[in-house]
Amino acid sequence: MYGRHPVLTALENQRGLNRIWITSKLRYDPRFHNLILQAKDNGTVIDEVEPKRLDQITYHANHQGIAAQIAPHAYIELDDLITKAFATTDAPVIVVADGITDPHNLGAIIRTAEAIGAQGLVIPQRRASGITSTVMKVAAGALETFPVARVVNLNRAMDALKAANFWIYGTAATGSVPLHTVEFVNPKDDNKKPIPIVLVVGSEGEGLSMLTQRSCDVLVSIPLQGSTPSLNASVAAGMALYEIYRQRWLNTLHLDKLQKTAWKTNDNRV
Length: 270
Fold this sequence. Notes:
By secondary structure, the protein is an alpha/beta fold. The protein has helices at residues 4-12, 24-27, 33-41, 51-57, 78-88, 103-116, 133-139, 154-163, 210-215, 233-268, and strands spanning 17-22, 45-48, 66-70, 93-98, 120-124, 148-151, 167-171, 177-178, 197-202, 218-221. Residues 2-76 form the RNA 2-O ribose methyltransferase substrate binding domain.
């Protein structure tokens, strides 16, 4: 793990760090100093090093003066992720990454999903990026609170999510429904309450596999007007997540207005 924000977030969450390499300038930075002392008291080895040493350790990555050695990322079981998601809200949103191989894309998806309010991520074990130091760096600390399940069979995982009453929406360039026309609610529910949602994002080159597409309830596309034929996977994920939550925010505001109107009507009654 490297970079100021990821390591700072790990320190603030008292994550077990085996060793920290840090420049002398950053070690006495007010944001880090007390946390570094606390980590040292908890058994973390603190090495004060020159930037060149950090260049060697991180293979010349953008380390920003600090790196840390941590245990492999602790993935969560899918069943536990589902349970945890429903403990947070009646209508959780979980992102499924279908074969995302670029760690920068995966990190950006995690950062966006956590920031906007999603409850977790599911990734396949094979032919896809796992949680690497690059993913942690790009995620900018989001992984300290954002659970990730890594599954052997992605389609069986999607079946399990369906069994838990999630509606599954897949992003595809040839999707049958433009994103801005989709209502992310149960079409049979006149009250249009939020529903549990799985958003499936495809790989950078091939998109969603045909097997994954068949597991989706709805395929959505993002209309493009320019000459560029497709979007980066993390950008597409961010746009789709924003639309899901935009609709929820609008519905919440609408309900609030209705309640206020009802209160005013009741107050005016004699």
